[in-house]
Specification:
By secondary structure, the protein is mainly α. Helix content is about 90%, strand content about 0%. It contains 2 helices and no strands. The longest helix is centred in the middle third of the chain and has 101 residues, at about 5-105.
Length: about 120
């Protein structure tokens, strides 16, 4: 082989080596980028799962609160009914007490005093 051909081949080889080195650098950068994106994806996926758990917990809490509110409404309704009955009972007791006072000899001569 002639010296000129050797020089040309050596020059071509150096250029191929440069291209291969550049390719390897690009590949290395892509690998690092891919790894960083995979880590980022894993973090986002983990956060998404955490948010899903939080949402599920909140849904459960809302369901419990709805049940509690319904129970409270029923209790308030019962309480209102009980208060109405109590008012009626107190009114009847007042009436009975006043009738008893009116019919008792000891109170017959006195001025009638209404029970409050």
């Amino acid at each position: 082989m002639s010296d000129e051909l050797k020089i040309v081949l050596e020059d071509v080889k150096e250029k191929f080596d440069t291209v291969i080195e550049a390719f390897d650098m690009v590949k290395e950068r892509l690998d690092r980028h891919e790894q960083a994106e995979e880590e980022r994806f894993q973090r986002l996926e983990s956060e998404l799962l955490s948010v899903k758990v939080d949402v599920t917990t909140l849904k459960t809490d809302v369901t419990i609160l709805k049940t509690d509110v319904a129970t409270l409404k029923a209790d308030v309704t019962t309480l209102k009914t009980d208060v109405a009955i109590l008012k009626t009972d107190v009114s009847e007791i007042r009436k009975d007490l006043n009738e008893h006072r009116d019919s008792t000899e000891l109170h017959g001569g006195r001025v009638k005093k209404e029970a409050s």
